[in-house]
Design goal:
Strand content: 25-35%
Order of helices and strands: EEEHEEHEHHHHEHEHEEHEEEHEH
Structural class: alpha/beta
Shape: globular
Oligomer: single chain
Number of helices: 11
Helix content: 25-40%
Bound molecules: adenosine-5'-triphosphate, magnesium ion
Length: 377
C-alpha cells in the first residue's frame, strides 16, 4: 500500500506566555513518526492534552511544526501547503458557522470558497445535468471545465460508483451549476440532512451538526478527511450514526484520519490506531493485534462485603495479578478454566461477594499496560 501521509520525527514546542517551573516553552509533540496508508481509517487515540489536535493541525497545514517533516499526498507541508489544503477535508474539534444561513446556503458558501462550482468533479452526483432551474446562484457565474485526470474517486451515495468509473463508462457529467445543485443535495443526503437543507445550524441536534460539518468538509471531494473527535458529546444513537457515515465515506475511497478519546470507537472504526500520550506515540497497530498481545489476560472483578486480605490469592499461581481496593477486587488470570477455582477459593474463605464479572482484553487494557495507568476520558 502507498502511504498518503508520512510524518517523521515531528516535534511541536509551544511558547508559553509565562514561565512554568522555569520553562518558557511546552513540548506538546515529541519526535513522533508514523505513516497513513491510502484507504485506511487511521486513529489517534489518547487522553486530554496528549497532542492529538496539535499533530492533526500540523498535517492539515493549519500550524507549523518546530521540527520534523510532514508529507501529505507527496507534498511537503511547509513548501506546498496550498496543494495539500485543496486535497484534504477538515472537521475541526469545534466549528462555528455564519448565523442566519441555511445548511444549503452554507454549503454554497463552502463550495464557492473551494471554487467548487467551477471545478471538476461530480463524483457526488448521479450523472444527470438535466435540471433546468437552480436556486441561489446565477448560472452565468459558472464556468464548466474539463475534468482533471487526478480527481479522487468519491461519494455517489446511490450508485456507489467512483467518478473515474462514470467517466470510463462514458457517463461523465457536464460540470455546471445544475451539477453543483445535485452535488449539494447528494452531500446532504449522504449525511442524512436532506430535509434540513433550509434549516439553520442552530436548529440542528449535536449529531446532525457534526454530520453537517462533515458535509462541509466534503464539498471539494477531498482524498483525505480529518476528523478531530467527531463523536465527542453525542448520545449513543448519534455516535453510531456517525460511525456508519465514517465507514460509508471510507468504503467510497476516502482515507480517514481521526482522533478519539473512545476506545470502543477506535476498536470499531480504525484499521490502525496510534496510541498517544504526553506527546509521544506509544504503539501503532491494528486494534485487534494490539489486543491479541494481551489475549492471555482475562480480568475478573467483584465486590466483597468485608475487607479481605489479598494474599489469599497467592495459593493460585494462575492468578497473575491481584488487587484488592475495598470493596472492589480485580484479578488477572490467563485462562477461563480457572474461574471456578477462584469461586471455590472465595467460598473456602467465607468471602461473600457480588457483581462478579469476567472481561477479556480491550484496547483500554492495552492502554493501561502501555502507560501503567487507567485511561481517563
Ligand atoms: N497554542 C498553544 N500554546 C501552548 N500550549 C498549547 C497550545 N495548544 C495546545 N497546547 C498544549 O499542548 C498539549 C497538547 O494539546 P492538544 O490540543 O494537541 O491535545 P489533544 O490530545 O488534542 O487533547 P484533547 O483530547 O483535550 O483535545 C496540551 O497540554 C495543550 O495545553
Ligand atoms: Mg484535541
Amino acid at each position: 500500500m502507498k502511504p498518503v501521509i508520512v510524518v517523521q520525527n515531528l516535534t511541536k514546542i509551544y511558547p508559553l506566555p509565562k514561565a512554568v517551573n522555569g520553562q518558557k516553552t511546552f513540548e506538546a509533540v515529541k519526535a513522533i513518526s508514523f505513516e497513513v496508508q491510502k484507504g485506511e481509517i487511521f486513529g489517534i487515540l489518547g487522553p486530554n492534552g496528549a497532542g492529538k489536535t496539535t499533530t492533526l493541525e500540523i498535517i492539515e497545514c493549519l500550524i507549523q511544526q518546530t521540527s520534523g517533516s510532514v508529507d501529505v499526498l507527496g507534498f511537503n507541508n511547509l513548501e506546498s501547503g496550498d496543494d495539500i489544503k485543496k486535497r484534504i477535508g477538515i472537521q475541526l474539534q469545534s466549528s462555528q458557522y455564519l448565523h442566519h444561513l441555511t445548511l444549503g446556503e452554507l454549503l454554497d458558501l463552502f463550495g464557492s470558497l473551494y471554487q467548487r462550482r467551477e471545478a471538476e468533479p461530480l463524483p457526488l452526483t448521479r450523472g444527470s445535468t438535466s435540471r433546468s432551474e437552480g436556486r441561489g446562484l446565477e448560472k452565468n457565474q459558472l464556468t464548466p471545465t474539463t475534468p482533471s485526470a487526478t480527481q479522487p474517486p468519491l461519494l455517489d451515495p446511490t450508485s456507489h460508483k467512483a467518478s473515474s468509473d462514470l467517466r470510463k463508462e462514458g457517463n461523465a457529467p457536464q460540470y455546471s451549476f445544475d451539477s453543483w445543485i445535485d452535488t449539494k443535495k447528494s452531500l446532504l443526503e449522504l449525511v442524512g440532512l436532506l430535509e434540513k437543507e433550509h434549516s439553520e445550524v442552530k436548529d440542528l441536534s449535536g449529531g446532525q451538526r457534526q454530520r453537517f460539518t462533515i458535509a462541509t468538509a466534503l464539498v471539494h471531494t477531498p482524498e483525505i478527511l480529518f476528523l478531530d473527535e467527531p463523536t465527542t458529546g453525542l448520545d449513543p444513537k448519534a455516535r453510531h450514526d456517525l460511525w456508519q457515515l465514517i465507514k460509508t465515506l471510507n468504503n467510497q475511497g476516502i482515507t480517514i484520519v481521526m482522533t478519539t478519546h473512545f476506545m470502543d470507537e477506535a476498536e470499531f472504526l480504525c484499521h490502525r490506531v496510534a496510541i498517544m500520550d504526553s506527546g509521544k506515540i506509544l504503539e501503532i497497530d491494528e486494534p485487534k493485534k494490539l489486543i491479541d498481545r494481551l489475549s492471555d489476560t482475562i480480568q475478573i472483578s467483584f465486590f466483597t462485603e468485608k475487607q479481605i486480605d489479598q494474599s489469599i490469592f497467592s495459593v493460585m499461581p494462575e492468578i497473575k495479578k491481584a488487587h484488592a481496593d475495598f470493596p472492589k477486587v480485580v484479578l488477572e488470570i490467563n485462562s477461563l478454566d480457572k474461574i471456578s477455582a477462584i469461586v471455590t477459593l472465595l467460598k473456602t474463605h467465607n468471602i461473600v461477594f457480588y457483581g462478579f464479572t469476567v472481561k477479556t482484553a480491550t484496547l483500554e487494557d492495552v492502554y493501561l499496560q502501555l502507560t501503567g495507568r487507567e485511561y481517563q476520558e
